């Protein structure tokens, strides 16, 4: 890989105004206007909420524009990546080697975006490129830092313009195995679709891109990206090489890179799958037994190879996902969870869905504090307290309430008693899920030379 | 002299390399034996070596992730037969209102009917497994677990098996 050209070294926000081809194409049937796709993603992080709206650049046919970002996203992405398993060999570069150890099945990959090493590599450059933001101040890696298992250490994410999100950045490790993405969007199922939200969403602004900004022209003019795109997307259309530089291809490459970030060799994996007895401590082994114990039932939601019940593989791609209310809140008023984080209720509007969120993977959980969808529990010990109590009680303040009594609470959250030893053992078990290899793997690291 | 010293060092190092203790096998969390009890003629306590001497079967099952694993053990039917549970010709009339309560070390419980495993009825190949891919079950899985290859869900495949209690509802 050549080092980036001097032009690409100083990555400022100086963009020309050009229409993103994919967005323009998508908008053509809607009276041929340029639409400024400002995806109001609500205040939720990466959720692409359905109450999002799209504002027209021109008001000449204001009645025609799409009102829902869900529709825009579907329109942009579904023709490209349907939710069917990839069957054919990839036609864009060489076949991808997953190198998965025993016990790990291949993740689901959409048919329209087969994995290739070249796309993964392009995706890595894009992931770490702050030119992919409105002001050159943020990249995907701003909220997804490798050393923190691709989280940011904050309770809630902060976008390029300093705007705070309402939820925490989720780990991207093993995101390829996520049956649904984000904390609580039942419809967000592919990374290609999801990537558009941080890129173009404006409520909140994450990266703050606009379809007519200079991002795509920058890609087209940057010699390094020209090479990377040529390798990742060798086939070109009638317009020649220019056809490669599309938002659709950007999201395909980003998704491919994200899918490549696999953690399968933690000390726990060496013990459980490899039978290496001394890979984890005796304390961690006792913790494992507690974790899989009927009385605690942690494994009921955080089970399986990825320690999450929202897990899909190549062979069971369309798994139905359960969302859970864990009794984290029980605030006064019509909704028992503080807005805007009301769980899948945001999408279903069913009162029984208030407070229901995805059970995220516990892999590398020791690195991803603070915890829960809103980062409201600072430590793993605090999380154990919450579950041991069968729900969190908040004594005073705007969020006061007895979470244990939340009407939508999952019956599995019944509470349990832990000795000090049990507590220490459970934490040791959770720490055994930390995969040092994945947080130091140069294949997942920033490929750009360090900037001062 | 010097090369000789090196060769001694090499020999000592090689010796150390081979003198290392054999790799420890992970231990199972559940009890080292399970009990068959209840309304039966011959209550049993079964250890790993007992299972090793009984008719064994292998079952290949697909994990949730689509990967295949092979479990090995003794059919539940064989164990119940040995304990004198009413099976075969005896499984008729009131005996058909009999079930097996399988209980785990962590108090988890599930139920099977005797008819489920009997060859004239359900003929289910439910196994009391002690090996997975040729290795003894360890950690939270072992040393004994049930395996119900025809169940679509895994929830009756009790881990850390502790007791099998036969209950006759009509005596």
Give the tally of β-strands of chain B: 10
Compressed to H and E, one letter per element, the order of chain A equals HHEEHHHHHHHHHHHHEEHH
Q: Kindly state the percentage of residues in helix of chain A.
A: 25-40%
Share of residues in strands of chain A: under 5%
- Largest chain-chain contact? A-B, 24 and 20 residues
Task: Characterize the biggest β-sheet of chain B.
Answer: 5 strands, mixed
Query: How many E strands of chain A?
Result: 4
Helical region count of chain B? 4
Class computed from helices, strands and strand pairing of chain A: mainly alpha
Largest sheet of chain A: 2 strands, antiparallel
- Reading side by side through the largest sheet of chain B, how are the strands ordered? 2-1-10-5-6
What does this structure look like?
The complex is a heterodimer of chains A (452) and B (171). With 452 residues, chain A is mostly helical. Chain A is built from 16 helices and four strands. Chain A has a two-stranded antiparallel ribbon with strand order 1-2. Chain A has a two-stranded antiparallel sheet with strand order 3-4. In chain A, β3 and β4 form a beta hairpin. In chain A, α3 crosses α6 and α6 packs across α9. Chain A is globular. In chain A, 52% of the residues are buried. Chain B is an alpha+beta fold and 171 residues long. Chain B is built from four helices and ten strands; from the N terminus they run αββαββαββαββββ. Chain B has helices at 2-19, 48-52, 76-82, 114-117; strands spanning 33-38, 44-47, 57-62, 68-75, 98-104, 109-113, 127-132, 135-136, 145-147, 161-168. In chain B, the strands form two sheets. Chain B has a five-stranded mixed sheet with strand order 2-1-10-5-6. In chain B, strands 3, 4, 7, 8 and 9 form a five-stranded antiparallel sheet that branches. In chain B, β3 (57-62) and β4 form a beta hairpin. The longest helix of chain B has 18 residues, at 2-19. The radius of gyration of chain B is 22 Å and the shape is globular. The N and C termini of chain B lie far apart (88 Å). The model of chain B is unreliable at 11-19 (pLDDT under 50). Chain A binds chain B through residues 103-105, 271-272, 275-278, 285, 288-289, 291-295, 304-305, 311, 313-316, and chain B through 23-27, 29, 63-67, 104, 106-108, 135, 138-140, 159.
């Amino acid at each position: 890989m050549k080092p980036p050209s001097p032009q690409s070294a100083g990555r400022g926000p100086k963009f020309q105004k050009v229409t993103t081809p994919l967005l323009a194409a998508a908008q053509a049937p809607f009276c041929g206007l340029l639409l400024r796709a400002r995806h109001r993603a609500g205040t939720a992080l990466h959720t692409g909420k359905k109450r999002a709206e799209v504002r027209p650049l021109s008001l000449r046919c204001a009645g025609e524009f799409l009102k829902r970002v869900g529709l825009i996203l579907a329109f942009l992405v579904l023709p490209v990546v349907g939710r069917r398993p990839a069957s054919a060999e990839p036609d864009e570069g060489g076949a991808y080697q997953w190198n998965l150890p025993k016990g790990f099945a291949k993740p689901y990959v959409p048919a329209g975006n087969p994995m290739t090493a070249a796309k993964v590599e392009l995706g890595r450059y894009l992931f770490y490129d702050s030119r992919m933001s409105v002001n050159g101040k943020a990249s995907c890696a701003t909220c997804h830092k490798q050393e923190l298992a691709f989280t940011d250490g904050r309770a809630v994410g902060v976008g390029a313009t300093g705007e705070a999100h309402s939820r925490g950045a989720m780990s991207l490790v093993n995101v390829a195995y996520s049956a649904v993405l984000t904390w609580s969007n039942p419809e967000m199922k592919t990374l290609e679709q999801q990537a558009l939200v941080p890129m173009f969403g404006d409520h909140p602004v994450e990266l703050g891109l606009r379809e007519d900004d200079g991002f795509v022209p920058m890609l087209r003019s940057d010699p390094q990206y020209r090479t990377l795109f040529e390798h990742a997307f060798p086939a070109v259309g009638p317009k020649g090489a220019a056809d490669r530089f599309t938002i659709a291809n950007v999201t395909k490459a980003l998704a491919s890179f994200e899918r490549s970030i696999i953690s399968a060799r933690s000390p726990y994996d060496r013990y459980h799958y490899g039978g290496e007895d001394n890979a984890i401590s005796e304390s961690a082994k006792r913790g494992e037994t507690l974790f899989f114990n009927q009385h605690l039932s942690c494994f009921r939601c955080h089970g399986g190879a990825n320690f999450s019940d929202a897990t899909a593989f190549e062979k069971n791609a369309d798994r139905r996902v359960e969302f859970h209310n864990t009794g984290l809140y029980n605030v006064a008023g019509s909704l028992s969870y503080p807005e805007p984080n009301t769980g899948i209720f945001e999408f279903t509007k069913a009162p029984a869905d208030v407070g229901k969120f995805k059970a995220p993977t516990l892999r590398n959980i020791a690195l991803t504090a603070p915890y829960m969808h809103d980062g409201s529990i600072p430590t793993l010990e605090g999380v154990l307290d919450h579950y041991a109590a069968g729900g969190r009680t908040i004594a005073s303040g705007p969020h006061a309430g007895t979470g244990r009594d939340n009407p939508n609470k999952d019956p599995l959250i019944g509470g349990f008693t832990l000795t000090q030893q049990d507590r220490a053992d459970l934490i040791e078990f959770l720490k055994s899920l930390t995969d040092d290899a994945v947080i130091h793997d140069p294949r997942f690291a920033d490929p750009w030379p360090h900037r001062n | 002299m010097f090369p000789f010293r090196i060769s001694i060092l090499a020999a000592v190092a090689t010796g150390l390399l081979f003198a290392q203790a054999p790799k420890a096998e992970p231990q199972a969390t559940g009890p080292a034996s399970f009990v068959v009890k209840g309304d039966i003629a011959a209550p049993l306590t079964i250890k790993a070596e007992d299972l090793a001497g009984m008719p064994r079967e292998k079952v290949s099952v697909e994990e949730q992730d689509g990967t295949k694993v092979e479990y090995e053990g003794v059919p539940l039917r064989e164990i119940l037969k040995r304990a004198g549970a009413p099976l075969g010709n005896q499984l008729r009339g009131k005996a058909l209102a009999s079930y097996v309560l399988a209980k785990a070390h962590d108090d988890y419980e599930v139920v099977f009917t005797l008819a489920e495993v009997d060859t004239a009825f359900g003929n289910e190949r439910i196994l009391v497994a002690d090996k997975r891919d040729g290795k003894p079950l360890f950690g939270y899985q072992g040393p004994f677990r049930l395996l119900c290859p025809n169940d679509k869900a895994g929830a009756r495949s009790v881990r850390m098996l502790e007791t099998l209690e036969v209950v006759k509802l009509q005596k």
